[in-house]
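Possible race condition, two jobs.
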Amino acid sequence: MTGRHGGPLELLIFLAVILLSFFCLLGTAQQAVQTPPMWTVAAGMLSTVDPNEVLLTPINTHPPEDSYLLTLLPTEIASDLTPRGTPVVVPPATLVPVPPATLTPRARATATAAPTIIAS
């Protein structure tokens, strides 16, 4: 039994498919390492922003107003936040090494000769 050998046309098609696959892989790799356009900054070296002015602006450090902190919740939300039923106390998890279980010796099986009856 002899195998069928491809002619020059099949070799040319094979090489074209390999070359096309290489270019697809190259294009995919290029897209993967290309930086997205959202990382570009719309500024130049001649920017008029003074970095000292931007960095030295005072930060608002006073606490918010009490009226903002003490706003009441709607009754639908407040009723969902109130605890119902009996509380369940969960003990804290402790990470204590557990001693390995002791192995108990098993009884050895003994071979017994059993008579075999062959029905004919």
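Job #2 (started ~2 s after job #1):
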Amino acid sequence: MKTLLSTLVILLCLCSLQSRAQNDVPLNDPHAPKPKLFADLPAKMMTRITELEGLFTMEVGRSINTVISSKFHFVGIVISRSRPNENYRTVVVRSVNRQGANLTFTRTVNDLGVVKYSGRIIGLKNADAYELAMENGEYYFVKRDSYEMIAE
């Protein structure tokens, strides 16, 4: 009888733990209400890469004011810069005019010398973000749902 009772108690505990584990809320709950940081900006903004290229020369701690598009200037402070080799550069800028947002901009060069750029403007506490995309040889910042861009 004690064995049966012990087995039932263990099964009950396991079932309780299993059901509890299934109810964990993800860190980035897509249904949690978050404010939109870029509600006043268009869904797509053409950008000049030459303007952004200048960020790679900025020292950490330096204030910047760069033109993302005619409708949006990104004002911030360089918080990180990486240049492990000539084929890879990245810079991270914390915004002061869009609180909570960071701009990450990266330049890569492959073995054939082809240059590609990637970038994001994202705030972890906001519902929207921008991602750099190339269309027809031009670069654009395209508005996205930030939940889709953040991996848990």
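The mean pLDDT is 84.
Logs attached separately.
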